[in-house]
Design a protein that fits this description.
The chain has about 220 residues and is of the alpha+beta class. It has one domain: Alpha-Beta Plaits (2-Layer Sandwich). The chain contains 7 helices and 9 strands, in the order βαββααβββαβαβααβ.
Length: about 220
């Protein structure tokens, strides 16, 4: 997920997200880890990733119960989630770790008929990137919305959620290595040549917090 939070509510949001929202989500069966990154440029944007046992967790009765009964604190803050992009994904390729100081995300989609070419390029690249100095992992994800109705949480957010069809996440400890990658193998021109439909939406983020269900027991 990606969204913006205005500066005047950011401290309240970060308190809520770390001390209420993460524990609530990670208590749901099937949730393994939650991680939040802040914009590396100091802007209002953030990237949040939940790792699950399986895609079916996203339509489980336990998860839906929380989505349709937000707490008072959640209800107060949800309208401040601006420009929400929310993708419920299958893991297509995953190499190395997820938690690192930096995470860069690319949101993209393939040209019709070029799915296999783009998938092969990114999956092969992910395997190579996970072993490079400065990097710790790379992961290709594909969105598939669960078969559920609009939830109460979605209703109280300021705008309708958008989604990213494909997501490529690169994690590492050296920002310069990731930034160089974004103008080389992951440049807009290179991705279009491999079958991407348009320039990807990219972002670079720094880790704010991360927890597993065991951390919050």
């Amino acid at each position: 997920m990606w969204w913006d939070i205005a500066a005047d509510v950011r401290a309240d949001f970060e308190d809520w997200h770390a001390h209420e929202h993460f524990p609530e989500r990670l208590a749901i069966p099937g949730f393994r880890r939650g991680s939040r990154w802040s914009s590396a440029s100091g802007g209002d944007g953030m990237f949040v990733l939940y790792e699950l046992d399986r895609h079916a967790t996203l339509s489980s009765p336990e998860y839906l119960a929380h989505l349709n009964a937000p707490t008072p604190w959640s209800t107060r803050l949800m309208p401040h989630h601006r420009h929400m992009v929310r993708s419920q994904c299958h893991v297509v390729a995953s190499h190395g770790g997820v938690v690192a100081r930096y995470a860069s995300t690319l949101r993209l989609q393939p040209v019709a008929g070029r799915d296999d070419a783009l998938r092969s390029f990114l999956a092969t690249l992910a395997s190579d990137l996970a072993r490079r100095p400065g990097l710790t992992g790379a992961h290709l994800l594909r969105h598939e919305a669960p078969a559920i109705g609009t939830t109460k949480e979605q209703e109280i957010r300021a705008n309708a959620d958008a989604s990213a069809e494909w997501v490529f996440v690169v994690c590492g400890y050296a920002a310069s290595t990731i930034e160089a990658l974004l103008v080389a193998e992951l440049s807009a021109a290179r991705l279009r040549a491999q079958g991407a439909a348009a320039d990807p939406a990219t972002g670079l983020y720094t880790l704010a917090c991360s927890a597993t269900e065991r951390d919050l027991d």
